[in-house]
Amino acid sequence: MRRKITALIALFTALSAPLLVAASDITDKLMTAGRNAGYGTAAGESGILTTIGLIINIALSVLGVVFLVLIVYAGYLWMTAGGDESNVEKAKQTIGRAVIGLVIVVCAYAIANFVVPQIYCASNPDATECSEDSLMMH
Question: Would you say the pTM of this structure is higher than 0.85?
């Protein structure tokens, strides 16, 4: 049992790390956009843009963990069904719903990844990241 818990924690850590790294890019661009728009913060004080970036980071991380837990639960349910069709059907439905949820989360991240650079470039049009070609790649 202890090995299973250790393996689950290691898997969770490995799968959630990319979400944290990818979402931190959004936080940096939000901070730069806010500073360029004149919305600075006092020393030791966090602004609204930092808070929004933090919320995006936390939400993506939590939703990634929820997806992982649902997939592991459904897999366990399926493997221990022992021929019981109701448990197999419940596992299939859980996997299907978890995948739909993951697709929604990925789409939400894609939208945020598109909107944040647009806000950044609107507030800082002279930035090197704001050429027409680089905006098309986001």
Answer: no
